[in-house]
Every structure is written in structure tokens, then in C-alpha cells.
């Protein structure tokens, strides 16, 4: 079981804002046009998907511990010794926002850790029941969504 599977079991998107008819259109291979005034669309661009999402960011945390002591040696000189332990662990941070997919871009609008990427830079998609992992070159974005299959359909129809 991968990291995103473990995370999505604990978190899910409730109260989807994507109309059910739009989701059905996407799953049936039809590209809808959704009116939105929340993002700035470029000339010829239109929105095909909008819903709540949670971006998962995994960071490596490092902790160092030093334990030391000193005492007087046989000749009265100070003797010092110590040990150091370094420990690394992964910590997950989650950022709530809104995921938009247009016919040209993927936009994650959030107070922190938002992003925007053009479809031409998308190299891979990994779909889960309620999550999706988007790969753009050497950058990867993990998003918890209401239905990963709907997001996958929207991306495939726009690429």
C-alpha cells in the first residue's frame, strides 16, 4: 500500500462542488464548459472541471541529538567524549484548496502551496479512487479529490 493510499483512507473530500452532470459528461467522454469567475482564463481557454482538493506534501525532517560528558583523567586533565545521533523521518503536510482544470492548464488554488501547470508539461498520471498523482518532469503533485477517475477523464480529454 503506497503513501497516497494510506493518506486517502484517512482523508476524503466531502461535499463536492462539481455538478453531477458535469462528472457524468467527463466520464462519458464529453468535454463540458463550466462558468467560473474565480480564475483568470486566457484567450480561447475554458474551465472543464472545478472541485475541492487537498494537496499532500511530504517533507523530510531531520533531528540531531548530541549527548556528551567530561571528567578528569588520571593526570587531572579534562577528558571529553560525546555521541551524536542523526534521525530523519517523513512528515506529511496537507493544504486545502480548489482544483481547476481548463482546456490548457491545471490550477490548484490554495492559500499555501498552490500551483499552475500547462497540459503540455504533464508527463504521467496515476489515478486512485479518491486521489490523483500528477507528474510534471521531475515534480510530482499528490491531490486528494472526490473522484480520481473524473479528474483523470478531464485531463485525458484536454490533452
How are the elements arranged and paired?
Layout: H1 3-10, H2 20-27, E1 47-72, E2 78-102, E3 105-110, E4 115-118, E5 124-128, E6 131-136, E7 139-144, H3 148-158
Antiparallel strand pairs: 1-2, 1-7, 2-3, 3-4, 5-6, 6-7
Explain how this protein is built.
This protein is α+β, with helices and mostly antiparallel strands and 159 residues long. It has a single domain (3-60, 92-158), classed as PH-domain like, CATH 2.30.29. The chain has three helices and seven strands, in the order H-H-E-E-E-E-E-E-E-H. The chain has helices spanning 3-10, 20-27, 148-158; strands spanning 47-72, 78-102, 105-110, 115-118, 124-128, 131-136, 139-144. Strands 4-3-2-1-7-6-5 form a seven-stranded antiparallel β-sheet.
List keywords for this structure.
159 residues; alpha+beta; 49% strand; elongated
Summing up helix and strand content along with how strands pair, one would put the structural category as alpha+beta
Write out the strand line-up for the largest beta sheet, numbering strands in chain order: 4-3-2-1-7-6-5
Main sheet overview = 7 strands, antiparallel
Number of helices: 3
Oligomer: single chain
Number-wise, the strands total 7
What value does the Rg take, in angstroms?
A: 23 Å
> Into which percentage range does the β-strand content fall?
over 45%
What is this structure, in a nutshell?
It is built from three helices and seven strands.
